[in-house]
Amino acid sequence: MPKRRRANQNGDNPRKIVLAYSGGLDTSVILPWLKQRYPGVELVAFAAELGQGDELKDIERKALASGADRVVVKDLRKEFARDYCFPMLRAHAIYEHDYLLGTSIARPLIAKYQVAVAHQLKADAVGHGATGKGNDQVRFELTYMALDPQLKIISPWKDPDFELISREAAIVFAKKHNIPIDQTKKKIYSRDRNLWHISHEGAEIEDPANEPLDRCLVMSVPVASAPNKPARVRIGFDKGNPVSINGKRLAPVRLIEALNKIGGRHAVGQTVLVENRLVGMKSRGVYETPGGTILYEAHKALEQLCLERDLYHAKQQLALRYAELVYYGQWFHPLREAIQAFMDHANQVVTGSVTVKLYKGRAQAVAAKSPKSLYDTGLASFAMEGYDVTAARGFIDLFGLPMKVQALKQK
Asked: Do residues 237 and 361 share a domain?
């Protein structure tokens, strides 16, 4: 049993904690550990339905069996898709070229509702099971601070008394306390799944010298198992938001779910990435984002068609900063909100449809049309009719004047 040495870093021992609970290994063992750490504390396990599939099956029974006094489960899929995934899509945010931010974008929403539940149940603390090495600790805690800085923050992995500092130790603790878990020492992938993606870490993935095994894949088939015949899917957009598949209008959740199935069959959206964590070290993960990858490819093609050049280039630059803000857990930061206003304004003209070809792990936009298109076939062709080619001479002379003067004077 850990020593009860002192209260958490924010002051007195908490009376009631709303813990972000997933039913996974970390949060399952943290529930009984918190009971030992803070005698008499009331534990509320908060679980968010974000499209985890079967992971929330029997979540209430499991939480109560693990030490929770109360369980709150809230279906947040609609809000997640509409107010988090789609705004991020409109920004076209990608972290370090490849990561579509599936885990990053979910944490602020979970933390937002933890704070809401804490207010509703008059809890004085919120907590999470993220480790002291990862990004999620920052994402949870920044959201708590932004929405209610008066709440105590309970983070067991940063508690000096916390002894479950490895997955193996957590598994032993769970067995000892009869806590129901799915992990074993042989099956030790750490996964995070939601409507947008699934991530995989641990086991052979941790060593960059190893090729990740196909067995880790969940939402998509291995590339070698994908159909030998390509498929095409047409995505309709209205002001940057995807609204239809092959002409059929779908609500955001249903649309993403449908594209996940289509993309998963064709091995689309698989990424092996060594990324730079906010806390300083590099980590390696395997990500599956089949539906999101299709949407990003389609959205990119429509932006290329509809956005004026300088606006498009400025948007690309801001997308890098936006992606960092999401990755760093700063969803409720005023800079993210201000950039979002820019992104949404730019997307007012991103309306139309895009055909995406899916084949052996690749999603490629092959056709696009829009009533807001800036593409002029006559101007783009090699024909010179209606275009004053003599204007180009003066334009080049003036545009190149600084380079010409520098060459004459300094070289």
From this structure: yes
